[in-house]
Every structure is written in structure tokens, then in C-alpha cells.
């Protein structure tokens, strides 16, 4: 996937408080210009892994294979025919222009639970940001069982635990070939904040079709330029 405009972009709109907004197709807020990416979680490469301390997770443990089992996650560069071919063969991660770039594979735990948590720094107060990320269901179609596709709940909190925003991806459906989808949503930071805690939960119990890849989580500041001055009236 090289052209993000071909991806089904889910844009979840400006969030204040904990209001839930349903997903609508490719739409950006009026007048929003994105500044350079503030944060880019691309999981690094085989030589320089960007890894996270996920030891606090209750239902997930790290695996070092390319085919993590139920309840395991792994930083993976590629995978081939996992679980007797139930998973797609995936030749590379989503990040462009790197060597053996890593993505996160999650094989859903038997019980719906959080699979990622990280405290992120560098945010400005009273500022609108876009959170974006790429995900893919890595299970093939028709693996002979009733699929239970993952549904991801994304929560952003202050370091003190106050919720800033909540996004839901809806179902990540299996496809006939590996295909990344970008999900994005907007949120505003409150006054006096510099850190944001990102939490992601698979709300579906583990089972058939509930395995996914994640890559290229980005935070970008939305800047609203001032409106142009009104034109002079002709006399
Ligand atoms: Ca990557
Ligand atoms: Ca790559």
C-alpha cells in the first residue's frame, strides 16, 4: 500500500471530553493545516527496534517469533504462512523506505483486553492534534470458522488518568489479501499538559479472525490559519 488515499480512511472528527463520534469517510476539519509530525511510532527496524514496556498488560506477553500465539504480541518484519496458512504472508511492515522495518503483531488474548499502553511526551496545551495509525487484519478469509474480527478501542488520557478522547475503529475485517487501513481522529489537549497516555484495547475476545498488525502511529498538530482579510469593497 503506497497511496494512502486509496485506503479507507476513517476520520473520527474533533473530540472534546469523551464524546463518541462515529466514523465517516475521508474528511478533515475545515481549515486544518497539519504541522510536521510530532510523534511517529513505527517500531523501528531489525537493527534498531523501537520497543515499549508492555509488562503491565494483564492478558498479553511478548513473543519473539513471527507467528505469536493467542495472548502474545511481537515486533515483526515479515511473516509467512503462520498457523498452517491461516494468516496472510506479509512481506514487509507499513513504514516506507526502511530496511527490515518492524510492525506490531497482536494475536488476540482469549479475553478482550488492552494490548498497548505508552506515555508520550511533547504535547502542547490547548492544541488540536490528529492521531493516525495503520492497522490490518492478518487473518485470511474463509479459514473455516465464524470470524470474530478485532474492534479496537483507542483511549487518550492525561498522565493523571483523565480521559481526553476515545476512538473506535469498528470491525477490522479480513481481506483476500493483506491490506492496510488508516484510522485517524482529532483531539484537543487541555491546559497545562505535556504528556498523553495512549491506550489501545481489543474489545473482542480472542478467536477466529482476531489477529492484527499495527504500524505508523502518528501525532500531528492541527494548525488553523487566520482567515484572509475581507476584500476591499469597490466604490
Ligand atoms: Ca514500521
Ligand atoms: Ca518498511
Write structural notes for this entry:
This protein has 235 residues and is an all-beta fold. It has a single domain, classed as Sandwich (Jelly Rolls). 2% of the residues lie in helices and 40% in strands. The protein is built from 1 helix and 13 strands. The strands form 2 sheets. Strands 1, 2, 3, 4, 5, 6, 8, 11 and 13 form a 9-stranded mixed sheet that branches. Strands 7-12-9-10 form a 4-stranded antiparallel sheet, with no helix packed on it. The radius of gyration is 19 Å and the shape is globular. The structure holds calcium ion (2 copies). One calcium ion binds at residues 92-93, 95-96, 98, 101.
For the structure shown, list the relevant keywords.
Jelly Rolls, 1 helix, 235 residues, 4-stranded antiparallel β-sheet, binds calcium ion, mainly beta
What is this structure, in a nutshell?
By secondary structure, this protein is mainly beta. It has one helix spanning 82-85, and strands at 10-15, 24-25, 33-41, 61-62, 72-76, 103-107, 113-121, 128-137, 151-158, 163-171, 181-188, 195-202, 211-223. It has a single domain (4-223), classed as Sandwich (Jelly Rolls), CATH 2.60.120.
